């Protein structure tokens, strides 16, 4: 917030009196970078999560169990907020994207991989026949179970390894993931998309997203981090953005049709259909 306030003040000064266009561009970049990377800043810097440099990035279960050592920390790691009302507000845009881009129907059996604390699941469960959340982190799922208490059409599944091996083929009408792929190795992103194709029924829909590397604010934040962290080890949970080409390639290679990339800055959202 301090960074954002300074950036906004800087822009104000520039707009009022500066004559050089590059100054205005710099100020605007600072504002947009602070907005896009605000989630990461809140969740992993302001709250002072451990660096976890002793854990490889691909030990996802162990990494996120450590970050979710308490319900409050689990919520903060999921979206940057510990307060339940803030957590629910943070779900509004992802839910809006899902409803607008792929639809959530009363007859749908829905699966979210990387569901975390059921930030999205709590909002979607009333809209569909069943909602299933899957995650590698037992601590995240424990908080999800508490938040979903009383919902009769929800299921939580602890994944034992990367992928969706716990689920049979042709089991779901909608598979999605949001704010999750940025924490995965590229090959693991591909694995989940490929498995999503298998577990979807014919005509089933896929919806995945990530920070869009091609969006100016995301690139600005990425470049700033690349400069400041050049000599540092990166923590295993540090987000890494995608391009539309990367994510659409995964979907097309997995066998999906009607693969589309939707630019909803700072995100790129991929939708696809299993024929």
What does this structure look like?
The protein has about 280 residues and is α/β, with parallel strands linked by helices. The protein folds into 2 domains: about 1-35; about 50-275, Rossmann fold. The chain has 12 helices and 7 strands. The protein has helices at about 1-15, 20-35, 40-45, 60-65, 70-80, 85-90, 90-100, 120-125, 140-145, 185-200, 215-230, 245-255, and strands at about 110-115, 130-135, 155-160, 170-175, 200-210, 255-265, 265-275. The chain has a 7-stranded mixed beta sheet, with helices on both faces. Helix 10 (about 185-200) links the parallel strand 4 and strand 5. Helix 2 (about 20-35) crosses helix 11. The longest helix is centred in the first third of the chain and has 16 residues, at about 1-15. The radius of gyration is 19 Å and the shape is globular. Residues about 1-45 have low confidence and may be disordered.
**The named CATH superfamily of the largest domain:** Vaccinia Virus protein VP39
Element-level helix/strand string: HHHHHHHEHEHEEHEHHEE
Span between termini: 46 Å
Number of domains: 2
Could you name the ranges where pLDDT drops below 50 across 5 or more consecutive residues? Answer: 1-45
Query: What is the number of helical segments per DSSP (H or I, 4+ residues)?
Result: 12
What is the third-level CATH name, the topology of the largest domain? Rossmann fold
| Rg measurement, Å | 19 Å
Number of strands: 7
CATH architecture verdict of the largest domain: 3-Layer(aba) Sandwich
Give the class from helix and strand content and strand pairing.
alpha/beta
Largest sheet: 7 strands, mixed
Helix content: 40-55%
Lateral strand order in the biggest sheet: 3-2-1-4-5-7-6
Shape field: globular
